[in-house]
Amino acid sequence: MTNENNTVIYIGVTSNLNKRVFQHKTKSYKGFTSKYNCTKLVYFEEFLEVNEAIAREKHLKNGNRSRKESLINKNNPDWQDLSEGWLFNGI
After folding, report:
1. Which domain does 64 fall in, by range?
2. Cβ(53)–Cβ(13) below 8 Å
3. Residue 70 forms part of a structural domain
4. What does pTM read for this prediction?
5. Domain tally for the chain?
6. What angle do CA 56, 73, 37 make, to 5 degrees?
7. For residues 36 and 72, what is the distance between their CA atoms, to the nearest angstrom?
C-alpha cells in the first residue's frame, strides 16, 4: 500500500485482501496506514500457506526502499491502484 504521492510504502499480510484494503481505505484502524494515508494498493502477492506469506513479508520489510520500488515498478510501472473498481459491499 502507498499514499497518493507514492512517498510511503506499507507491507503487510492478510488472509482477506479485499477486506484489508477496504479497512485501509476507510482508515478503520488507527496506525501506520491511516497516519500516512496509505490507501492505494500498488502490489500484492498470493500464497497458499500463511507461513510462506509471513516469511515473504519479513523479507520485503528487511529490504531497502529501492528494492521495494523495483518490485512495484516491474509489475505496476504507473503505480496504479490495483484495487480500483473492486466492490467492497458487505464487508
Report:
1. 17-75
2. yes
3. yes
4. 0.91
5. 1
6. 75
7. 19
